[in-house]
Amino acid sequence: MAGGKETPRQKMIGMMYLVLTALLALQVSSAIIEKFKFLDDSLQFANANTTANNVLVEKKIDKAVKDGGGKDAPVLKKANDVRIETEKVLGELRALRTELIDITGGWEDETKTSYKGAKEETKIEVLMVGAEGSKNGKAYKLQTRINDYAKKIADITGDKELGKRICLDAKESPMFKDSKEQGKKDFAELNFAQTPMVAALAVISTIQADVLKRQAQALEDLAAQVGATDLKFDVVTATYTAKSSVVAAGTYYEADIFLSASSASLVPTFKMGGSTLPVDNGRGKIKFKASGGSYDKEGNVKKSVAAEIHLQVKGKDSIFPVKLDYIVARPVIQVQSATVSALYVNCGNELQINVPALGSSYNPSFTASGAQVIRGGQKGQVTIVPNGSVPRVTINVSSDGTAIGSETFNLRTIPRPDIVAKTGGKPVDEKSGMAAPGPRQINVVAEAEPGFKSALPKDARYRVTEWNCMLVRGKRPVAQMKFNGEAGNLSTFAAQAVPGDRILIEVTKVQRTNFQNKVEEVKIGTVIKNIPLH
Question: pLDDT at position 285, please?
């Protein structure tokens, strides 16, 4: 196929071309002339083998089309068209080789083993490049002809890769584009200026090799379309299968190692569930999201999936079924929270829910019954607000729409805050009381239960909003005041209080601010504080 791996013969031709370009940069000597001749002869031999192989491939295409009842006749026509175009170009190249030999004196003798003008450069340059830099030599027409051939082969086969230019200027060549000496030369100057005749022959042989390579690539493409390629396992790799890629310490690791063989000349089609699979390096790539099921006591569920390999060999369709067995393990859900064992009702319980087995593919979403779910800014962050309609809240965890599992939490009611009377920033001791006439300023505050405040500080913000205060003497109130806030000015009481009196505080309203800064009334019942004066 175009763009595929090169055959050993093609690699050899490429190596000889590299040697040729290296020799062109050296001073001409008898030894180098002999090497040019050797390279040319080697290329001609390799080209003859490629030609013979191309003929065999075309015959296989013809047979496959006939065996298939002629339904692929258009493919055979394309193969014939490729051959006709190739023969035209090769004929022109052979004629050019003959002309190069003739203008430099021909052969030394009838054995045709050496040339009279093997070292001749000037006549070659005038013919191929042009006299005195006129650039009207035959190499320019040759470049256009060969590159047009490549385009025509691409048009016949529909493979754009086959249309890439063959005869390149120096600036197009990876080998010469960065060279200060050669980088500005065009194709003719690069290959035929100051070039011995025998080296010019080797260049022509290289072009012939490139033309034959394009023909071979085109025929391989067409042969694959009608299943005319031979099933040759020419790609062999060492591989293995293991029972598990994860092994616990103290247990056995078990695996099979074996050779895997495939064919570079055949391109199978891989299917699963009626859909064609993507292919990478000749292998079908299976990728799907595994779903859970009825897990066993170890947290595993056995599953399988069916796939098919479709291969056309010598006009016949072959299907190779494949059954892939796999085990889906129930992912472990990790929950991190200050209140991981239970959730507080009507509070923003912040959780970090992770599934380590999913790694970077973890893209979670959450649902819950009897609770509001608020997604956080980071992956796995979620705030659960139970409404108390159910005794437990179950959080369902999914990743990219696939159910992973669930976690169930018990619920806790919010503990009642502790009401504390303070003066001078310190709590008043209700048992020992205070010296008469008592405090001129007192604050009544609601303090959250320490465990609740530590777990959910954003939900543990309380404020006393209404309370009554009386100065009591015996069983009779002497004075009474009402406050709408935590602070109370008791200067009026101080002017009347005597030892034996007491200050009685009744808290009537308390509010809580939650994690969303919403305010709600707290049901605290009747809270009485009694401060004796002595």
Answer: 87
Nearest-Å Rg of the Cα atoms of the chain is 46
Check residue 180 and report its DSSP letter. Answer: T
Q: CA-CA distance, 528 to 500, in Å (whole number)? A: 19
Query: Within 158-242, where are the H helices?
Result: 187-192, 197-225
HEC string for 332-359 = CCEEECCCCCEEECCCCEEEEEECHHHH
Integer Cα distance of 170 and 180 in angstroms: 11
Contact by Cβ (8 Å): 204, 96:
yes
- Where does 334-412 sit in CATH, by number? 2.60.40.10
Q: Judge contact between 428 and 434, C-beta under 8 A.
A: yes
C-alpha–C-alpha distance, residues 265 and 115, integer Å:
41
Residue reference for tokens 């505050």: 445
Domain ranges in the chain are 8-225, 235-264+266-329, 334-412, 418-532
Of 338, 354, 337, 389, residue with least CA distance to 368: 389
Question: 230: alpha, beta or left, given left = phi > 0 and alpha = psi -120 to 50?
Answer: beta
Query: Is the pTM above the cut of 0.85?
Result: no
> Per the structure block, which two tokens stand in for 429?
């001791």
Classify residue 385 by burial, with Cβ atoms within 10 Å: 0-12, 13-18, 19+: buried
Give 420's strand partners: 445
Which residue reads 């209140």 in tokens?
Answer: 339
Q: For the segment 189-235, what is each residue's pLDDT rounded down to a tens digit?
A: 988 988 899 989 999 999 999 999 999 999 998 988 887 665 556 66
What single DSSP character describes residue 434? Answer: B
What confidence score (pLDDT) does residue 14 get?
60
Tell me how far apart the alpha carbons of residues 398 and 405 are, in angstroms, rounded to a whole number: 7
Cis bond upstream, residue 356 (ω within 30):
no
Q: Which two tokens stand for residue 391?
A: 């005794």
- How many whole angstroms separate alpha carbon 264 and alpha carbon 217? 12
Q: Say which residue the tokens 């108390």 belong to.
A: 388
CA-wise closest residue to 117 among 380, 387, 125: 125
Report the C-alpha gap between 222 and 217 in whole angstroms. 9
The CA–CA distances, whole Å, from 479 to 382, 433, 473, 491 equal 53, 19, 10, 11
Counts of helices then strands in the chain (DSSP H, E): 9, 25
- Measured N-to-C along each axis, helices 30-67 and 8-24 cross at an angle, to the nearest 10 degrees, of 150
DSSP label at residue 7: P
* Cα 23 from Cα 35, distance rounded (Å): 8
Check residue 242 and give its pLDDT.
Answer: 59
Low-confidence spans in the chain with pLDDT less than 50: 1-4, 23, 25-28, 248, 250
DSSP secondary-structure letter at 113? Answer: -
Q: Distance from CA of residue 299 to its chain's centroid? A: 29
Least Cα distance to 144 among 174, 202, 188, 205 occurs for 188
Note whether 197 and 40 are within 8 A (CB). no
Name residue, tokens 């050797």.
Answer: 38
